[in-house]
Amino acid sequence: MVLITLTKEDFQAYSDQVSCRSFMQSVQMGNLLEKRGAKVTYLSLKQKGEIQVAALVYCLPMLGGFHMEINSGPIYTKKEFLSEFYFALKEYAKQNGALELVVKPYETYQTFDSEGNPIDAEKKSIIQSLTDLGYQFDGLTTGYPNGEVSWHYIKDLQDYDAVSLLKSFNKNSIRNIQSAFDFNLLVRNAEREEIPTFKKIIEETGKRQGFEDKNLDYYFKLYDMFGDKANFLIAEVNMQQSIDALNVKMASLDKKSKQFYQQYQALQKKKDFLTSLDSDSGNVVLACALIIYTNTEATYLFGGSYAEYQKFSAPFLLQYHAMKQTMQRNIHRYNFLGIQGIFDGSDGVLRFKQNFNGYIVRKAGTFRYYPSPLKYKCIQLLKKLLRR
Question: Which of 158, 219, 352, 388 is deepest in the core (most CB within 10 A)?
């Protein structure tokens, strides 16, 4: 069966029918990849004139041919046609000069509870169906090999409102969000001219956590290509307004309550912290988060915060705000994205995300097909020799 090229409009219309998909399989992502120099094609497999499977496929030049990839796809409405698609994809890769074809399916391989305990069986058929067709499997992995994320932390937002959502988090998360409310923090969408401010937070976080930030052009292109499908969120505080809000809270406490002294002291500590900061009366940016939307899923792509403002608990408030915005868009799946898949307490990113009482899904990983395996091996050997 031959794969058929779709227009962007047809791919968008089809993707809106799919029950679950990643933003990596979106026209917006395709536009971004084209801006980065990739050749993007929207392929489909049709049965009786109806699209059953489709994918955003991108190509980048490499020595001896092209690197061809489907990331977090394909998307489908009829799962039984996936094998036919993968079979036809091999022929497409051969005919279009691919030296290497990489496929990273978005299907869930296995589901786990928040602590990493499996709650369903492994879907080994995902791996088997691709290896039977001649694809090589990189194997089930942990961590972030080559920067890839195969373990996702998910929060199901179905049947929540803002109040019940907050109650669904663990006690630490609720306490931190309440603290952020006490400080009267503001969360808003950053304007385009504020992208350098947004990037600076990520840059500072990267220095602290040991990852390298992207250049400024990366952020501007993301902002421009995704438009209203992305929110660049910023959490900030106005010091004087925060002090005023704390004064109001302190004055409204019930002096007859047994918790009065404890509550008063907690608010006073927050007030003392604010007055100790060397800052003007204007707004101070504390943290940021980038959220990208499809019609079925919101993804927390990345975020950051300033260590010196940790007491404001801004990252917790950002996540709560982002989930409420997701529900307002009538989207019921919030993807915190990557964790390592290691559950020995060493993954600090996982510990933060566990505060929101979600669950974990594991993707199968990466599959590779080489249309001309001997040519590929010879080129890889040549590259090694040239590096000596």
Answer: 219
Report the run of H or E that residue 102 belongs to, with start and end.
strand 98-104
Task: State residue 376's pLDDT score.
Answer: 86
Question: 0.85 cut: is pTM over it?
Answer: yes
Q: What is the pLDDT of residue 210?
A: 85
Q: What is the DSSP letter of 193?
A: G
Residue 257 region, left (φ>0) first, then alpha (ψ -120 to 50), else beta? beta
pLDDT digits (tens, 9 = 90+) for 369-380: 999 989 888 888
pLDDT tops 70 at residue 177: yes
- 114-153: b or e for each residue (b if 16 or more CB lie within 10 Å)? bebeeeeeeeeebbeebeeeebeebeebeeeeeeebbbbb
Q: Is 282 exposed, middle or buried (0-12, 13-18, 19+ CB in 10 A)?
A: exposed
The single-letter code of the amino acid at 242 is S
Lowest mean pLDDT among 193-197, 215-219, 220-224, 258-262: 258-262
Domains 4-105+365-387 and 159-331 share a fold: yes
| Helix (H/G/I), strand (E/B), else coil: 17 | coil
Side chain identity, residue 297: E
pLDDT at 178: 97
Q: Are 24 and 72 in contact (CB under 8 A)?
A: yes
Q: Structural domain boundaries of the chain?
A: 4-105+365-387, 159-331
What's the Cα-to-Cα distance from 346 to each of 283, 331, 342, 351, rounded to whole Å? 35, 32, 7, 9
CATH of domain 4-105+365-387: 3.40.630.30
Whether 296 and 333 have beta carbons less than 8 Å apart is answered as yes
DSSP letter for 240, please: H
Using CA atoms, how far apart are residues 309 and 318, in angstroms rounded to an integer? 14
Contact, 30 vs 43, CB < 8 A? no
Q: Which of 3.40.630.30, 3.20.20.70, 2.60.40.1190, 1.20.1250.20 would CATH assign to domain 159-331?
A: 3.40.630.30
Task: State how far the Cα of 291 lies from the Cα of 307, in Å rounded to an integer.
Answer: 21
What's the pLDDT score for residue 348? Answer: 93
Residue 388 has pLDDT above 60, yes or no: no
